[in-house]
Design brief:
By secondary structure, the chain is of the alpha+beta class. It folds into two domains: 2-110, Alpha-Beta Plaits; 122-148. It has five helices and four strands. It has a four-stranded antiparallel sheet with strand order 2-3-1-4, with helices on one face.
């Protein structure tokens, strides 16, 4: 049974692009070996870490979205633990049963056609507020704030910054 997974990998920056790309290519081959497919490879790039990992404060993040058999994930995580350039990883089960046809249909529906994109741009231009509209909105917000912030005698502050009644 195929399942959909997401793995986030944190690479050492010093390992270099070649080592990272070689590992990612081996990972893709492993996924395909177990009748799976890499759906998306999202490289987030270099980011500052929330805390030190292996005495490093920065790392290179990559997110892999794929489907495969459960046994592949076990083997993949074993290989990750042996890899020196990977500092940390996290694998999450996204879907317990994965239907590739349904996924492809959803992807096609998610991509708007060129005509839809042009129509939505025209609609956005028509509904874009003018400077006059914006000044009315700002004035209305200002009026609402003034009405809601009535000061009573007990809440007032004298010129020295002390509350009255002290």
């Amino acid at each position: 049974m195929k399942r959909r997974y997401e793995t986030i990998l944190l690479f050492e920056i010093e390992a270099g692009d070649e080592a990272r790309e070689a590992f990612l290519n081996r990972s893709k081959a492993l996924i395909e070996q177990y009748d799976g497919k890499l759906l998306e490879q999202d490289e987030w790039g270099v980011r500052k870490l929330a805390y030190e990992v292996r005495r490093k404060i920065r790392g290179y993040y990559v997110r892999l979205d794929y489907y495969s058999q459960k046994e592949m994930v076990e083997e993949f995580e074993r290989i990750i633990r042996l890899e020196d350039c990977v500092m940390k990883y996290l694998t999450i089960l996204l879907e317990d049963t994965f239907d590739q046809e349904q996924y492809e249909r959803n992807q096609i529906q998610a991509v708007p056609s060129d005509e839809d994109a042009e129509m939505s741009e025209d609609q956005a231009e028509e509904t874009e507020p003018t400077d006059e509209d914006m000044s009315e909105v700002v004035q209305k917000d200002f009026d609402d704030e003034v009405d809601n912030s009535e000061i009573t005698a007990d809440d007032s502050v004298d010129t020295e910054g002390k509350e009255k009644g002290e």
